[in-house]
Amino acid sequence: MKIFENLANLKASKLTAGQLTSTKGFYQAGDGGGATYLIKTSADYGGTPDEYRDHTISGGTIAVLQTEGSVNVKQYGAVGDGVADDTAAIQAAADAVSASGGGVVYYPAGTYLVSRGITTTDSGTQHLAIRLNNFVYHKGAGIDATKIHLADGSDCHVFYQFQADHCGVSDMTIDANRANQTVQNPSTGNDPAGIIIIDLALNVQLKDLYIKNTPDYGIGFEGSMNARNCLIENVTIENSGGDSFDAKNGSNLSARNIISNLTVLDLNPSVGQDARQAAVNPREGWTLNNIKVNNLSGDCVGIRFNAGTSADSGGESGRENRCSNFEIRASSSGTTVGIQADGRHCQFSNGYIEGTNDGIWVRQSEQSFSNISIVGVANDGFKAIDNTVDPTFATAGEKCQASNIIVRGAGDAGFDLSTNQNRLSNCIANDNDRGFYIHTGSNNSIIGGEATGNSTTAVQDNATATIIAHLYGYSQGTATLTCTGMSASTTGTMKYEIDGDVVNISIPEMIGTSNTTAFTITGLPSVLIPRETSYFMLRARDNSAAILGMMQISDSGNITMFPAVSGGTWTASNQKGVYATGISYII
Fold first, then answer.
1. Mean pLDDT over residues 264-278, rounded?
2. What mean pLDDT comes out for the span 498-510?
3. How is domain 480-586 classified at the CATH fold level?
4. Least C-beta-crowded within 10 Å: which of 55, 93, 326, 341?
5. CA distance 97 to 117
């Protein structure tokens, strides 16, 4: 076999048909483009060489590149120096692999400059650099080694496919060079995305990628999408101008699409883009695991299970999504939302949200949330929204279940319910303005959990038929009572438990030395104020003797003690006070 230093030397040689020959490089020896060629006559070849894969050599014979299922883009003339435009060479390699039945297009280490190479009308007018042929997988040498850079002013998608089937991209960095594109407004239809797939996505794999600086989507599954058996794994998306990951999908409950280990950084909507963009925005049939969203700001959303398009009945295309093990952090609260749950029958579990404006919005019914911590949000932690509050949604965020949700440090309510039949179990609201706020709706329940340290109130219930039981700090708790009318401060710790609208209180023994004829007790928590002024006979002490006294708790929460059922005044000397006892009344 004759070996040449490069392709130019081979093409200058006169070789006879049937010979096998090879090169040490495409442009020069060692540049990564070395390959083996079979020499054919032009008649046997039966066409015109593209001069990327196959080449005309001196004497009129054809050098035909020999490959087996996978090719190296440098064998097609890609340079990978970040200066030469490699678009045509890469597309030629992909087309050749596709024509041979599929395989891998390999990108050795280097920076590959690409530009607008194709304009297609198969789904509106789409401008693109590289088409993702079906059954072709683009694979780099690693995100730190292989880099795809979109040339200034290209205004196109980097990778694109219409109706994709068994294709993918992996092991590379994709930089859409957002700052140097002339089109920044998505309404033009030319806004560059990192990877975009239209109408159909079957068995698409996007793995081990770093996608950055896209004026629109980092990854988009768009159009009348039907996505099935797709895998997004070990992907970081930074500085996208639209949803970092967006997936339309029709009614497809058996889609089995997976996103695993996705990190989104610095989502930053482009000029002209709807401000409420999401870091992760799938419709129906996606399972998410290990999702991280950092530096959320403006009006953006961390994870949104979208209700779909206006053609969807009641948001049905947002069903059956799952998300576990997520972390969402905002760099500034703005009007950000950690999770916007607009789908139905969706599940969120094992997550952490910090610093957003609202933690979780629930805007569609029958969803579940478990084991989530929400810390330091400016407004509400967990919010189930009525469709009268947001009438763009056909149904409200009702009939949802939340368990083991912790909200700490919310500027307003830890939990805010304005819908019906939601069930909160073992949820904790600490150090918020309000713990639990049920301001409209009916038949909601709060079972177990805790509401302590909230500055305004533990529970504010303005709804109907709310069930609250075993909620520490509201249905269970302690409070310090202080007696007045004594020469020295006399205090005691009361215990209480609320069962529905009935409170049971254990009054401690509090006896001291009287110095006035009046006797009042302060410290009753606001959640224990009776529905109407209530009276209780109990054992007391006056002038150092045991008596049968009376306690009055007013409907404003004031406690006044009397030395007899008929009232009267206390002796202004010797011992007075109340013995330990229990009382119950309606709140």
1. 85
2. 89
3. Immunoglobulin-like (2.60.40)
4. 55
5. 18
